Amino acid sequence: MSVDRRTDTEPEAGAETQDENLVELKVFRYDPDVEEKQKPRYDEFLIPRERGMSVLEALIEARDRFDPSLTFRHSCRQAICGSDAMLINGQHALACKTLVEDLAEPIRVEPLAHLDVEKDLVVEMEHFYDQMAAVEPFFDPDELPDDALTEQRQSPENREQIKLSTRCIWCASCMSSCNIAAGDNEYLGPASINMAYRFLMDEREGEQRGAERIEHIADDHGVWRCQTQFSCTEVCPKDIPLTEHIQALKREAAKKNLKFW
């Protein structure tokens, strides 16, 4: 369900925490299943300050100490995770990597933009996952070695070319920041196009499969919808040059349609 996030109780910027030993959080709240919580609002939490505390740790403290109904996603310490992406003081960030001490207070925490809010800081991600699956993110060579133990080797140069594209943690920050994705629900979006780049630019990818990938990403809701605003690149927590990858795929799509007489 789409939620109007403008509220009558939106916090004022620049307010100061009265006690320097406390961290002041202003957290977006919304619960469609509870009548008195169906109108979005901000709740304030005062959390004991600890050195090196992250925003995620502050949220966990708020939930465990004050309100067990406070809802957000996190899956930390599992090698790869983008589930706790959210807006922190108006900026896209991973809550687990954002330190309280680096932020102006009160710290305003909100769900990702342009995605429907399910509850509090949790947004609906199925559409994002569908877009990622739409580019068929798996390796597809023309031929496989006769021996199952034989490696499908990749040159160091080609590995370097696609290295950054493999860093994606599916956090959806790029989709949240993208004005095109906000207005076009069928747009593949930066993350899935980056995934297509990762496989299309792999020298081991099959020629026929590569041609099919180009055809898919060059349709009306693919790479040509990108307006090169760089917002996705700016917010990516893994520093993936998403806009650069999209432009590279535009060039590949253009070359495919070139004809020489």
How would you explain this protein's 3D organization?
This protein has 261 residues and is of the alpha+beta class. It has helices at 55-65, 126-134, 156-162, 173-177, 179-183, 190-200, 207-217, 231-235, 242-256, and strands spanning 22-29, 41-48, 85-88, 91-94, 107-110, 117-119, 122-123. It folds into two domains: 22-123, Roll (Ubiquitin-like (UB roll)), CATH 3.10.20; 126-256, Fumarate Reductase Iron-sulfur Protein, Chain B, domain 2, CATH 1.10.1060.10. The chain has nine helices and seven strands, in the order E-E-H-E-E-E-E-E-H-H-H-H-H-H-H-H. The strands form two sheets. The chain has a five-stranded mixed sheet. A two-stranded antiparallel ribbon has the order 6-7. It is elongated and about 65 Å long. The termini are far apart.
